[in-house]
Amino acid sequence: MQAVFAHDNKVIGVFARQGSEAALQADEAAEDEDATNLAINDLEKFTDAEKKLLDQRDATEQKDYHRAGHLLVFGSMVVAGLLILANWMASREMARRRHAEIQQRELIEKLHQALAEVKTLSGMVPICGWCKKVRADAGYWQSVEQYVAARTDAIFSHGMCPDCSEKFKDEIQKANPKRELSSD
């Protein structure tokens, strides 16, 4: 390239001193053709080197493009896996909550049924001091057993306490003095 620049400077110098015709003759000289051919060869070498560099850059860009593509595919697969895992965990949690809600509803229903079945006695109960009958809300008198059974789930069984048993035996003996009762 320096030879071409030197030749061009020489032609410019000839032009400045002798004019355009002398510059044309100096440019067409045989020795200058060798310099031009050398410059062209240098430019071709430079162009070939530049082409090689461009090819290397393209190859590097292609490798980077493929790496980025593989990275994107891998990343997409990881994200898809995480989404599937999150969806699975969320559906398990929702199923667990639905199950707990069903159990809670069943428990509430059982509690409502139990509350409906519970009967309690509260407040003041009007009872006769002699016969021990209880006055019902409608004004009717009924036995304690009937009153309690109507308002609770209690069931009565009858028996006799030891004190009443002795009194009963004494009354029977007074009524029948001739007959003795056995104590069994």
Task: Provide an overview of this structure.
With 184 residues, the protein is mainly α. The chain has two domains: 2-117; 120-184, no CATH class. The chain has five helices and two strands; from the N terminus they run αααββαα. The protein has helices at residues 2-18, 20-27, 30-117, 144-151, 162-175, and strands spanning 134-135, 141-142. β1 and β2 (141-142) form a beta hairpin. The model has no long low-confidence stretch (mean pLDDT 84).
What structural class is derived from the secondary structure elements?
mainly alpha
| Amount of helix | over 70%
Q: Count the helices. How many?
A: 5
Number of domains: 2
Q: Could you tell me the strand content as a percent range?
A: under 5%
Instruction: Give the overall shape.
Output: rod-shaped
Distance between the termini: 147 Å
Summarize the structure.
With 184 residues, this protein is an all-alpha fold. 73% of the residues lie in helices and 2% in strands.
